[in-house]
Amino acid sequence: MDPLHLKKISILYVEDEESIREKMEHILLKRIKNLYMAENGKIGLELFMKHSPDIIITDIRMPIMNGLEMSEKIRSINKEIPIVVTSAFNEERYLMQAISIGIKEYIKKPIQLKELIKTITSLTETILLRNELHEAQIELKKRYNDMKEEMEMAAAFQRSLLPLKNVANNFPGIDITFSTEACSDVSGDFLIVEELENKRLAMMIVDVMGHGVGAGLVTIEAKTIFDELKRLHISPSETLKALNERVIDISGFNQFFTTCYAVFDLIESTITIASAGSVPIIYYDAASSKSKVLPIVGTPIGLFSKKDFYTEEITLEVNSGDIFIMQTDGYIEALNKEEVRFDSLTEQNRIRKHFKKNKASDDILNDIKKDVIKHLGNENSFDDDVSIIIFRKE
Q1: How far apart are CA 7 and CA 25, in angstroms?
Q2: What's the rounded Cα separation, in Å, for the pair 332 and 102?
Q3: Residue 326 pLDDT > 80
Q4: Among the three residues 136, 159, 191, which one is the final residue of a domain in this structure?
Q5: Is 247 contained in some domain?
Q6: What predicted TM-score, i.e. pTM, was given to this entire model?
Q7: Are residues 181 and 92 in the same domain?
Q8: How sure is the predictor about 90, in pLDDT bands with cuts at 50, 70 and 90?
Q9: 368 φ/ψ sector (left φ>0, alpha ψ -120 to 50, else beta)
Q10: How many whole angstroms separate alpha carbon 104 and alpha carbon 102?
Q11: What separation in angstroms does the CA of 92 have from each of 13, 153, 243?
Q12: In the sheet that 83-87 helps form, which strands lie side by side, from edge to edge?
């Protein structure tokens, strides 16, 4: 570290032996910004309250108030300030007490200049980094207060990436509807409904942890990566694996989201589905007039490296009247005033009751919405983003 960085910090040195105080004053005064000297803990505490130093170095055994008593009082005021105790070899019993009040640094007497400077330098690096982070937080907060316009622009851009309602026009006999609603300006949910080559229809639901601009940017990133991967003609599960690797390459392990990806093949009349920790898909089998939750599991995107990432995939034949619902947890986890959820994540019985063989997808979606609103009552609104895709073969 640049020695000039020490000139940015102040130290409170508490020591009852005058000769040691004089020696330390001679060593430190020319190296640091400010030095405050005290001969006992009582004076040390007063100087701390007056000057708020960056580092405290204190002897243990002193008259009036010892170093540990002083440190304990300081810790009750400031839990972060670094405290270094100086100790003779026969004072190890005091060190256990020092550890109990959160003191992690000590220097044995007689104090060696090299060890002292090394300790102060190490603590200074931590202090300067913490100060930089604090300043960055202040700057971020200031920017956040001025970013309403940017949020609106981000929301508009995110909406521009959503599918058009006529996206399935080239798929005769397919009745599909979808909806996404944000609980803030920018949604942490996203959905994709997009035509692929060879009469295939891609459907994806993305649910990012959190809300607002940060989560919205992750959804845009996911859409951008998907646009690259869709050209590779790989299966849904392979797509999710590649998506996971790309997200980690770009962002490390700092972003993660759940998703479900399905591809309908019009020629084969099949649907292939893969999950990465998403809400389970509901499947209505028109032939039996029964619905069920598909047991497809997987790990969220961005949470595990390639070797630990896992996704399951199934392929089903799609017959006339069959229905599939992909969704985030917004409807399911909607809480009423009694703090009761609308539905069970694993069973989804309240949503499944709206299925009928010849019922249009728009009608199913409208009935689900009405049911959720009834559950919420007049005093409640959604506190989560909501996205849903309902796919039905006529």
Answers
A1: 15
A2: 45
A3: yes
A4: 136
A5: yes
A6: 0.61
A7: no
A8: low
A9: alpha
A10: 6
A11: 21, 61, 55
A12: 34-38, 10-14, 55-59, 83-87, 105-108
